Amino acid sequence: MAEPPGAPHRTTGSTLLHPLSGLLGIPLDQINFVACQLFALLAAFWFRIYLGPSHASSAVRHAFATLFGIYFAVFCFGWYSIHLFVLVMMNYGIMNMASIPNIHRYSFVVAMGYLTLCHISRIYIFHYGILTTDFSGPLMIITQKITTLACQLHDGIGRQAEELTAEQNRLAVKTRPSLLEYLSYLLNFMSIIAGPCSNYKDYIAFIEGRHVHMKLLEVNWKQKGYDRLPDPSPTGAVMYKLCITLVSLILFLTLTKNFPMAYIIDNEFLDKTPFLSRLGYLYVVTQAAKPKYYFAWTLADAVNNAAGYGFSGVDERGTFRWDLLSNLNIWNIETATSFKMYIENWNIQTAAWLKRVCYDRAPWYPTALTFILSALWHGIYPGYYFTFLTGILITLAARAIRNNCRRYFLSSVPLKIAYDVITWVVTQLAVCYTVAPFVMLAVEPTIKFYKSMYFHMHILSILVLLVLPIRPQAHSIRKPQNQATQNSVKSKDK
What we know:
By secondary structure, the protein is an all-alpha fold. The protein is built from 23 helices and 2 strands. It is 65% helix and 1% strand.
């Protein structure tokens, strides 16, 4: 996180906190990011207590959330925040003028096209030395929201209910939003800086005060001894997430700068370190790179919860859950025994977006198209594409191994434990191998890294796909709401 002595404290936003940046030796863009999120946390508590649905109208709540979100964007990104507002207003025009059968297509092309142009411009502006927190992050979240809303509008107005899956039918939007609702959904202060993307109907239910009530109605409270619906408070969940945020920040400040990914391709390191030791160090540096994501995503989740948004219901033990907007499950990530399990628990809301706008709608090759869209959404740095193309290969190989081999290890507890240990080690190393180019960004260090690793994961994955039989998969765009079809959708890409 700290820059080398004498490095300029660059930012495209406000320089108000420059003295603090100099005192702490932390880049000013990161100081602005944390300051905005902490202020958003305080504003979220105030918003829930003093501008709750019982104290203020939906219009007032929408307006407050929008104005504060715009202020945070300008504070953090300065005139670059104009890109956010241009994209938002362009797609508002599309949403109101485009025909319903094409609204999701036009919105997708314009939003992804504008985002890609901005990604390209960042190459020339920053030349790989990108700021940790620049305007592209919020633009990526807004792109998710724009395309999500467009698809759900298309489902709600342009398709019959029997053409939709149960989830698509639940999230379908039946009427075009007003300008205030649209701006509030895209630019609200809870998610403008770090997300996450949420569904439009969930957000509107939150603003109108129906969000928690709807989830509580799914439980028979009379059987549990309640005379009326309980009033779950997010305070406990927020405090827990803030503790995770603090630990992640400490790990980020102490580990990340001491274990740089670049060292894995240092010539002296490669000459003196045996292959297995290099694998071990690769795991260490990948672990050291995670806390910044844990910090940013968990803090963003806490901000939304503090405002009263993110309630997901009650678990089997009767505990109130506030993980509707959670972007990761750290325990499941660190104990994942399959590539699929790891992906499902990392950047959860982006994975959900990819599923809803691409995977569930792709007429063919849903896995490949979803990985490609994910790479394009992240940016145009070559390292991203090395990561996601490698991810396709490893995902297919891991699926083939699981489908063909796992059943032989379920006959006894020792065999199952051995299988879990082996698959945990392989999964963690496969993830490290896959994501290293994502951090390196450029072609030259990526190729050097792959050579130092003897392309072993690529070779092993190809051998697996050549040797093991692959179960054929059917894929259909239209998925009626019957149980058999829903089951096929869930299993088609496992």
